[in-house]
Design goal:
By secondary structure, this protein is an alpha/beta fold. The chain is about 35% helix and about 20% strand. The strands form 5 sheets. The chain has a 6-stranded parallel beta sheet, sandwiched between helices. The radius of gyration is 22 Å and the shape is globular. The model has no long low-confidence stretch (mean pLDDT about 90).
Length: about 425
């Protein structure tokens, strides 16, 4: 019997990419042949995000594209959008299966039971029942590997649907993480990015409800003494969970890179309060100052949301000025979009969409200036660059320890190698 082929498409965060990679390996082990998403395949799997309105629209557009190209193929939708709006997705013409958070890693079993032409099957669940942890990592996709060590979130930020889509905070054990790290080291992986929904909350177990006495600091201490991996990065960590002990440990670590990504969301204490964030701007500034005191060369990325309900011109100016003065390196700017079942829907007045876009543009310009300034500070320095495998029009790129991007003509012998590089 001929093997079925499968193609994957991922929307959203690095966590989604690590999960897609693991799902792909599981199906290949089960006899499926992996195809590129632009090729014809028997089954298409879309791993969705629902952080912004565009992710929902993008999912619909992709299904329509598959319908035109390959109307007889099975289409499976999983991920956050699938958990939040299963009925809405099931009504999209061409969708055959909607898998919620608890069923995502049972993908192979569900595909075998599926037939084209039946009405869309929904295997969703009450998010309160999602309590297992499935480890996952990306491999063969790029030089840097994303390793999921934590999932879910117990915070209740006013703008966010993630707790509804991914459930309570839970994580792998340190033992489980080390097992995955050893597997990755055996494949020749040089750099691992630790990912999670609320990474600093690492330690909450899912092993039969037992409480584990482990935390994020314990994890990175253990990883630092692991053989076989040369670099670790912390993908994103809440400022209230990024304590001085973690900062001080990274500052003296040989393997953890001088690079933090710390969500801020707003530089106005009024807006932070309405967002239900668990800190004020003073704590954030304190964290940045401590990092720069110990690691002046450290790269610091920031998430910001513009146009949150009731954000006045003055509130936005507070955010702009705060970021302008902070010693940060780049911004990820998000335009606020209304999400069903979030507290923010009840906050008034609403910021007009065109003003949200203007504010987004201003902060993206600031981000560009910040990155230019940060890069210029390191001109003429020699730093180690890990080059990636992609050959883009005869060029290759890589990143320094402190996340400065370097581009150079492609040389095969440099792929996945740490090269001393004069900036």
């Amino acid at each position: 019997m001929q093997s079925k082929s499968v193609a994957f498409h991922t929307l959203g965060c690095k966590l989604n990419y690590s999960e897609t990679s693991t799902l792909s390996r599981m199906l290949e082990t089960d006899g499926f042949v992996k195809k590129d998403f632009e090729e014809e395949a028997d089954v298409y799997v879309i791993n969705t995000c629902s952080v912004t309105e565009n992710a929902d629209k993008e999912c619909r557009q992709i299904v329509r594209r598959i319908q035109r190209r390959s109307p007889q193929s099975l289409v499976v939708i999983t991920g956050c959008y699938a958990q939040l709006k299963p009925k809405e997705i099931a009504e999209i013409e061409g969708v055959d299966l909607v898998l919620g958070a608890a069923e995502k890693f049972n993908l192979s079993k569900h595909i075998h039971e599926l037939a084209k032409g039946d009405s869309a099957k929904i295997c969703s669940c009450d998010i309160e029942e999602v309590n297992g942890f499935n480890s996952s990592y990306s491999i063969n996709d790029r030089t840097r590997t994303f390793l999921k060590v934590q999932d879910g979130c117990d915070y209740n930020c006013a703008f966010c649907t993630i707790p509804l889509a991914r459930g309570h905070s839970r994580s792998d054990s340190i033992e489980g993480v080390l097992r995955n790290v050893h597997e990755l080291a055996a494949t020749g992986t040089k750099e691992i990015v630790l990912t999670g929904i609320n990474l600093g909350d690492f330690g909450k177990g899912s092993d039969g409800g037992k409480h584990r006495e482990e935390n994020f600091l314990n994890l990175i201490q253990q990883l630092d003494s692991t053989d076989g991996i040369e670099r670790f990065r912390i993908s994103s960590i809440e400022p209230n969970l990024l304590n001085n002990e973690i900062i001080e440990f990274v500052a003296q670590s040989k393997k953890f890179m001088p690079h933090f990504h710390i969500p801020l969301q707003s530089g106005s204490n009024k807006i932070l309060g309405l967002m239900r964030r668990r800190y004020q701007r003073e704590l954030y500034a304190d964290r940045v100052a401590r990092i720069k005191e110990l690691m002046p060369h450290c790269c610091i990325g920031v998430d910001v949301i513009v146009g949150f309900p009731s954000e006045s011109d003055e509130d936005f100016q507070d955010t702009f000025n705060f970021l302008h003065e902070l010693e940060i390196s780049y911004l990820h700017v998000f335009t606020y979009s209304e999400r069903a079942n979030t507290i923010a829907l009840d906050i008034k007045p609403i910021v007009p969409v065109h003003i949200r876009h203007e504010r987004n543009k201003m902060l993206r310009n600031l981000s560009y200036q910040k990155m230019q300034f940060f890069t210029a500070q390191h001109a003429t320095q020699t730093r180690k660059v890990l080059f990636e495998s992609a050959n883009k029009n005869g060029m290759m790129e890589g990143y320094t320890d402190n996340y400065i991007k370097v581009q150079t003509p492609f040389r095969a012998e440099w792929v996945n190698q740490l090269v001393e590089w004069k900036l």
